[in-house]
Amino acid sequence: MIRSMTGYARVEQQGPWGRLSWELRSVNHRYLDLQIKVPDEFRVLEAELRALAGGKIGRGKVEAGLRFNRDSAVTVAPQPDRVRLGELRDALNVLAEELGPIGQPEPMRVLAWPGVIRQDGGEVAPPLAEATALFLRALTDFSDTRGREGERTAEFLRERIETLAALVERVRVRAPQVRDAWLERLRSRVADLGVEVDPARLAQEVALAAQRADVDEEMARLGSHLTEVRDTLVRDEAIGRRLDFLMQELNREANTLSSKSQDAEMTRCAVEMKVIIEQMREQVQNIE
Fold this sequence. Notes:
This protein is of the alpha+beta class and 288 residues long. It folds into three domains: 7-73 and 134-147, Ribosomal Protein S5, domain 2; 78-119, no CATH class; 149-284, no CATH class. It has eight helices and four strands; from the N terminus they run βββαβααααααα. Strands 1-2-4-3 form a four-stranded mixed sheet, with helices on one face. Helix 1 (46-56) packs parallel to helix 4 (125-193) and helix 6 (216-233) runs antiparallel to helix 7 (240-260). The longest helix has 69 residues, at 125-193.
């Protein structure tokens, strides 16, 4: 499947530990530039996440961000730390022995004493495992988005290929007519001048002029490159760089055709070819 380098995906998951959400977005880039931003407690996953992303994404500048919200976690009633309470009781007993009866401590002050209430942050393993699973879901959605965009781009390219092929055929038919018309004008001019011309020299000049104006090779190469573009579009792999190279080759042949043209119609065809090839090149820049 052809994939665009532009994509977006967002997924989230609610659990007893809180809410996780991944957001992935990308733009075109020469290579794979992956930036992963996660909270500190999830940094242990970064190597695994990079490996997972590398298996799904070939090229593009990709930003992947994870958000973790504990505020939505299932609340648990506060639990006193019995060991800490025992230590506090022992300290109060020592004071009573030294200073005499001190009365019963107020419960709320005891609860406010540092360490008496356990500050559980919750287990780390469940949200870590869920973050990895959720990342895989995000990658799947992300890949599907890029695939849909890539197919739209491929359809655009196929339409332009057929337009180019029609222009190539038009030039192929036109070129012999232009050559024959030029030869006829040359013979007519020589006849009008009424001068003696060495037939061998005239034949040589005609051959040289015809060679300079001959575009058969350019037409053949244009046709071959268009066939290669069609074949490349059905490959199930990253094809962006190959298509970019083919666009350069198509443009080179169109430029050569333009420089050789001695006919207004062929020149118009060459200019139209270059416009279409440039449109294709712009789209190819975004293919993985």
